[in-house]
Structure formats: structure tokens, C-alpha cells
């Protein structure tokens, strides 16, 4: 049987147009699936946004769940003589510090050389430059034959743990190799070298006998009248747990006290993170009665469960010993409706400052407790972990939406394959119809011609 390459040629019917219309109508069956996939994708995105806000709140809660936060100390310094930093074992108190002199490094300058290009090391053998120190072993540096003053400098600087830093300076008349101790203090001072013994003596033009050395010195200071010396300007141990960095000669007062600022910032961050989480929830569950616009998670049961669980922990408080804090309200934090009728945390600044200043031990027991989940912050962190887990309200809702997307995509593929098969069947049927009509038209034309011929013959007779 003959085939028709283009639908409609044989029959004269717009079969291609009809097939396109049928294809469009069949593909309309995919639109509901596409809308369902889009709806679930919007939900997954919304759950991700909620998950991020929950994670930020958990991070803020974890900061309060660290008992060391409430025992941290800070230093304040009046005067420019020193800077100070307190460690975890510092002792609270006030200390008068007087810096008499700073620790300095020792220096040494060699004899003067007229020309930088002069080869100072004669012969063909490597020579040894020995550097001597006041309170430590000497250091040997190999110097190659033919070395200039700059080559000697480079060899010293290339020597690991040489204890000195070398440079070349011009003093107005010639060039000198200068050495500076890398450490401060009297014992680290470089006291001399055998430079004059290993170089070509005829090239050394300095009339000053020997080398020019300047002794390094130890720092000298007093802490509350007690005399202290230090080889370094960074002094540890003069005040328990405090590192002093000596800046200049003079007097300073160092105060070591409870670090109320760090605790205040952690609590404020906790309140801000919860209120930000609440803003995210309000946005995702909003409804505008005038425009009809709705949040992506309006009426979502997972969101209601999350709010309920968190509110329960926040308002439930913790078990407290006598004189301790049991509820957020005890430290000046309360759940209140804001101007948009949203339940958020609010701080009584005066009360919170009083608690932070006077009772950080009780504050630590309230937020951090005596175990990882014993305090309010630990309970909140554990609750968020449960909510975000695979079996939690948020984790389950998110994974459920993701699974529905995968299922809908598979359904979409199956539907698309079915539509393609249907259209292919229509195309075959239309091709057969086109061929059949074409054959019928040919038969009709043939019969018409035969009848015309018969009529013509009858007319002649």
C-alpha cells in the first residue's frame, strides 16, 4: 500500500492542524502535575528558609549553653604604657603597672667597606663566620669564597635560627654589615663576631677598632610595687592569667573584671535570633485579606508544631535552686505580643543588666545548666535538633515534599510517554485515513470519467 509522506496531501484535509490540536489537548493533562510540582517546590524552598532561621536561633542558643561564657574575664587599661589581655585563669582585681624601660634587641656593626662589589673572602675555601651572643651558644655561618658584603648578608639571613637579622647600611662614608638580634633582652644580645678575621683586611677602612656593638636590655617594670624584669615586651605571669604587652615607658592601671559585655551580646543575640525566626514564620504563614495573597506555608501543620514546641520550652523554664532563676521573666526577658500581634521576646534592659552584673553564676545555671541539655539554652537546642531531624516536624515535612516532587516527576514522565504513544497512534490513523480518502478520490475520478465517456457515446447514437 502506498504511503503519504505529509498528512492532508491525499485527502485535502487539515490533518496536521488537527493532530497539533489533539497533541495540545493531550498535553493539557500534564499541566495539573506541573502545578503540583511547582507547589511542592515552593514548599521545599519555604521549609529551607524556615530551617535557616531555626539554625540561626539554635546557634544563638548554643552560645548561651557554654558555661565558660559566664566565667570569661575582660581587661580595661587606663594609660598608654601597656596593653593587657586576660585568660581564663586570670584573677579579678586592679593592678598598678609602671614601665621603667622596654626590652630592646642588641645590634652590631662591622668595619666599614668602601665598595659593595669588593670580594671580601679570599682564596678558594669556604670560611666560617661565628656570631657570639651574651647568654646563648654561638652560631656559625658558612661564607663562600668571593663573597661580597651583600653575599655575607644573604648567607646570614638564609641561616635558620641564626638569632640575628642582617642588613647592609651606608653610613655616609662607606658600607657596613649590621646585625640585629631577633629576640629582645640582654641574653639575646649579639656581642661580637670574627668578621675581621675572615675578610680581606686591606678592604676594611674603618678606623674604629673592632666592631660597634650595642647591648640589648631586658624590660623593667613594676606591678603593684613589685619589681619585674623580662627579656620580652610581652610579659606573662606578672599578673595571674594576664598577658601584658609593654608599649612605652610610663604608668597604667589594669583592671581585670567579669566580661559582662560578652554575656550581654550573647543574650541579645539570642533574643534577636528568636524574633527573626518569628518574623520568618509570620511571613511564611501570612494572609492578606485585601489582595488574597497568602504565605507559602499558610495553614501548614509543621509550622504550628514548631511554634508550639518552642513556645512550650521558652515558657516552661527550668528547675532552679533557691535563689536561682527558673523563668525567662526572672532575668528580664518575656514573651509579649508586638504591634503586629506576633508573640516575640522582649528585654527589660534594666533588669537584665542587673542580673548580668551581679549574678552570672545563676545566669549560667539557668541557660547552660550542669549538662548539655540541663539549662534552657540546651533544651532549646535539643528541641530544634529534634524538629529538624528526619522524624521531626520540619525535617519530615521537608523530606515529604521532596519525595512528592520525585513521585510527581515520575508520574509526569509516564504521562508524557503515554501522550507521545497516543499522538503516534493518531498520526498512524490519520495517515491511513488520508490514504484511504485519496484512494476513494481516485476511484471517484475514474468513475466520473467513465460516466462522462458513456454519456458522450450515448449522445452520438
Automatic annotation (TrEMBL):
<comment type="similarity">
    <text>Belongs to the FliD family.</text>
</comment>
<keyword id="KW-0975">Bacterial flagellum</keyword>
<feature type="coiled-coil region">
    <location>
        <begin position="398"/>
        <end position="425"/>
    </location>
</feature>
<dbReference type="InterPro" id="IPR010810">
    <property type="entry name" value="Flagellin_hook_IN_motif"/>
</dbReference>
<dbReference type="Pfam" id="PF07195">
    <property type="entry name" value="FliD_C"/>
</dbReference>
<dbReference type="Pfam" id="PF07196">
    <property type="entry name" value="Flagellin_IN"/>
</dbReference>
<dbReference type="InterPro" id="IPR040026">
    <property type="entry name" value="FliD"/>
</dbReference>
<comment type="subunit">
    <text>Homopentamer.</text>
</comment>
<protein>
    <recommendedName>
        <fullName>Flagellar hook-associated protein 2</fullName>
    </recommendedName>
</protein>
<feature type="domain" description="Flagellar hook-associated protein 2 C-terminal">
    <location>
        <begin position="216"/>
        <end position="442"/>
    </location>
</feature>
<dbReference type="InterPro" id="IPR010809">
    <property type="entry name" value="FliD_C"/>
</dbReference>
<feature type="domain" description="Flagellar hook-associated protein 2 N-terminal">
    <location>
        <begin position="11"/>
        <end position="105"/>
    </location>
</feature>
<keyword id="KW-0966">Cell projection</keyword>
<dbReference type="InterPro" id="IPR003481">
    <property type="entry name" value="FliD_N"/>
</dbReference>
<dbReference type="Pfam" id="PF02465">
    <property type="entry name" value="FliD_N"/>
</dbReference>
<keyword id="KW-0175">Coiled coil</keyword>
<keyword id="KW-0964">Secreted</keyword>
<keyword id="KW-0969">Cilium</keyword>
<keyword id="KW-0282">Flagellum</keyword>
<comment type="function">
    <text>Required for morphogenesis and for the elongation of the flagellar filament by facilitating polymerization of the flagellin monomers at the tip of growing filament. Forms a capping structure, which prevents flagellin subunits (transported through the central channel of the flagellum) from leaking out without polymerization at the distal end.</text>
</comment>
Amino acid at each position: 500500500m502506498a504511503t503519504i509522506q505529509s498528512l492532508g496531501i491525499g485527502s485535502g484535509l487539515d490533518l496536521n492542524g488537527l493532530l497539533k490540536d489533539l497533541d495540545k489537548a493531550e498535553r493539557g493533562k500534564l499541566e495539573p502535575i506541573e502545578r503540583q510540582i511547582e507547589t511542592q517546590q515552593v514548599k521545599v524552598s519555604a521549609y529551607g528558609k524556615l530551617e535557616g532561621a531555626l539554625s540561626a536561633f539554635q546557634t544563638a542558643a548554643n552560645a548561651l549553653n557554654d558555661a565558660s561564657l559566664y566565667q570569661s574575664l575582660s581587661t580595661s587599661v587606663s594609660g598608654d604604657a601597656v596593653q593587657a589581655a586576660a585568660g581564663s585563669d586570670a584573677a579579678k582585681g586592679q593592678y598598678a603597672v609602671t614601665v621603667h624601660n622596654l626590652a630592646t634587641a642588641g645590634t652590631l656593626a662591622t668595619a666599614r667597606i668602601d665598595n659593595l662589589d669588593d670580594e671580601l673572602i679570599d682564596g678558594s675555601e669556604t670560611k666560617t663566620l661565628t656570631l657570639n651572643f651574651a647568654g646563648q651558644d654561638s652560631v656559625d655561618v658558612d661564607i663562600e669564597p668571593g663573597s661580597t658584603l651583600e653575599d655575607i648578608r644573604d648567607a646570614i639571613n638564609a641561616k635558620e635560627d641564626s638569632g640575628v637579622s642582617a642588613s647592609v647600611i651606608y653610613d655616609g662614608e662607606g658600607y657596613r654589615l649590621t646585625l640585629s638580634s631577633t629576640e629582645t633582652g640582654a641574653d639575646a644580645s649579639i656581642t661580637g663576631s670574627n668578621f675581621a678575621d675572615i675578610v680581606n683586611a686591606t678592604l676594611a677602612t674603618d678606623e674604629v677598632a673592632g666592631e660597634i656593638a650595642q647591648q640589648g636590655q631586658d624590660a623593667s617594670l613594676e606591678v603593684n610595687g613589685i619589681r619585674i624584669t623580662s627579656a620580652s615586651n610581652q610579659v606573662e605571669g606578672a599578673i595571674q592569667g594576664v598577658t601584658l604587652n609593654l608599649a612605652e615607658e610610663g604608668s597604667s592601671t589594669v583592671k581585670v573584671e567579669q566580661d559582662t559585655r560578652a554575656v550581654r551580646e550573647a543574650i541579645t543575640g539570642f533574643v534577636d535570633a528568636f524574633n527573626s525566626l518569628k518574623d520568618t514564620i509570620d511571613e511564611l504563614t501570612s494572609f492578606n485579606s485585601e489582595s488574597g495573597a497568602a504565605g507559602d506555608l499558610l495553614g501548614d501543620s509543621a509550622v504550628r508544631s514548631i511554634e508550639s514546641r518552642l513556645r512550650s520550652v521558652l515558657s516552661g523554664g527550668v528547675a532552679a535552686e533557691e535563689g536561682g532563676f527558673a523563668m525567662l521573666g526572672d532575668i528580664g526577658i518575656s514573651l509579649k505580643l508586638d504591634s503586629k500581634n506576633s508573640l516575640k521576646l522582649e528585654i527589660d534592659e534594666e533588669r537584665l543588666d542587673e542580673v548580668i552584673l551581679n549574678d552570672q553564676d545563676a545566669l549560667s545555671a539557668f541557660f547552660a545548666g550542669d549538662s548539655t541539655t540541663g539549662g534552657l539554652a540546651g533544651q532549646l537546642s535539643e528541641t530544634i535538633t529534634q524538629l529538624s531531624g528526619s522524624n521531626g516536624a520540619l525535617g519530615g515535612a521537608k523530606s515529604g515534599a521532596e519525595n512528592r516532587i520525585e513521585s510527581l516527576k515520575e508520574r509526569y514522565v509516564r504521562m508524557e510517554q503515554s501522550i507521545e504513544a497516543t499522538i503516534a497512534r493518531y498520526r498512524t490513523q490519520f495517515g491511513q485515513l488520508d490514504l484511504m480518502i485519496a484512494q476513494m478520490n481516485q476511484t471517484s475520478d475514474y468513475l466520473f470519467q467513465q460516466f462522462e465517456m458513456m454519456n458522450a457515446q450515448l449522445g452520438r447514437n
